[in-house]
Amino acid sequence: MTQLKLGLAYGLLSTRRRAGALVLPIVTTATGAFLLVLVLGMASGISAQAAALGHADEIQRAVVLIAVTVLLVGVVEVAVSTTRTVVHRTRELGVLSATGVPRPPVVAALLVEPVIASVAGAVVGSVAAVGTAAVLGATGAAASGVSPTGIAVGVLVAVVVSAVAALAASILPTWRAASRPPVRSLSSGA
Amino acid sequence: MAATTLEETSSGTLERPAQIEAAAATLRNSTIVRLLRFALANVRRRPERFALAVFGIALAILSVTVVRTISSSFAITGSDSVTRVLDGASLWAVPAAGVHYDSEVGAIVADGPAPGLAVPDGWTATRTIAGVWSSGAGDLALYGSDAIDDGTAVVGSQAAETLGVRSGDTLAVGSADLAVTVGDGDAVVAVPEDVAGDVVGGNGWWTLTEPADLAGRNDLGSMMSAETGLPSTTDPAVQPEADGEGLIYDAVGGSGATTFEQKFSALFSGQVTSSAFGLISVIGLVLGFVIAISSFLAAVQERRREFGIMASIGLADEVLYFFLVESALVFLSAYLLGITFAGVAVWLVVPQIATPVAWLAAAGTVAAYLPAMAIVGALVPVHRLLQQRPVQLLGDSA
To answer: Which of A143, A147, B87, B302 has the fewest CB neighbours in a 10 Å radius?
Structure first.
């Protein structure tokens, strides 16, 4: 347990050091979260638009499906950035395992970064969406109004989905990197 | 190299194994195959990143394909419904109240009585009563015109399914009993005009066909407009003026390359692509592209030394081909995965809207974006590399 805690603390420190590399994944996740929260918050307006086309229920479901998919696309960028981090830190990982640090804390340390990036992205996107929804509601641009419940559900879904998806997509590359024999990690060029 | 002789022919000996061997060697050594093998080797070095990039782009393609499937499905619906109305006629005179597509019954119905029309000599004019008929089995579109023989009804196959009738059966519409003929695959029940008038009232429109000597002219709309005083247009987006007499849609005139049916169906699909829907899916596609670029840039960053060696032995532009092939590999895999996902997604989420034809049309439209994305995706990292001198690339430790 202490080991895991130390691993998380180590991960937090190295995440702070690499904050620059997190900007792109945060932006992509935020875009996805922004859209998802807006779609769920303005569901009634989209329903009205869908009703004009017929098949209102189906269109509504499809809109939510697409918003979630776009959020996932944003989160995949988090995982791509994790693969980059892992390659970048191969030698460091070699040093860690050569000095006898077991695998779980190393993986925990590596997973801090994707989780922080995805949650930060989801939060930034949600804040932006809430702001936009408030402006739209105040100026009357959203004819059918903005539903606070929808926004709350949207924020929750955005944060949970992006954190879980980032973990799920990042766990394989980090696990593989932490499982390499230290000799190979230490001797590799990068 | 000694060639094995396989058979003797009149023209000499065939050295087939050697030829095949040579052909296989040419194939193995051909540039494109080598590039592919090189790209595959690089994919194998970072399988997770390849998988993630493909998965991310596939999700982006999924979102665009779903939207396009829905929009082409609407376009097909729009085109079918207007084709059903026109039925080969050239002009379509609609009431001042207009017509609309009723998505419940799946056909176009009129919102007011057909305009008064003094039909010039030689023209064939058919007045159609069109409304929603609440049959015992559900709402259906009812079209009434003189083109249908008394005592009969032509029932579209979808409508026949709803009503549970087959050719030869008798269908009770209002107070009339009609002999059923099952027609094409639409959801319209066509009956004689007086029967329809009793059931759905007098709302309707005229369809007009020109006399043979005027066939092929593209100013039929304005000719008829001059004869009848009704305004005419070739643009289905124009609505009749509410306080006017009506409007003539000219389905064969106009100077554009698109037909009236195509313009009409574009109105339908435009409703989807220009809605919140279309915007979200385009943003998804942009994010997918960002993933592609970022994973290629990561590859460049990690392989600087390798590219330094290539650059120092004089390969510069060739690097572009390496990336083009890798990029094509990524986008092609993502495309195949994405349209498969999309097929499953539309089948699960919007089963009533999605048809295989619409899905195929969507997959085709999306395929049109891919080459551009793959090429730009490869150009960005190469541009990065070419800005640096080999010495710099070689000197850096990644």
So the answer is: A143
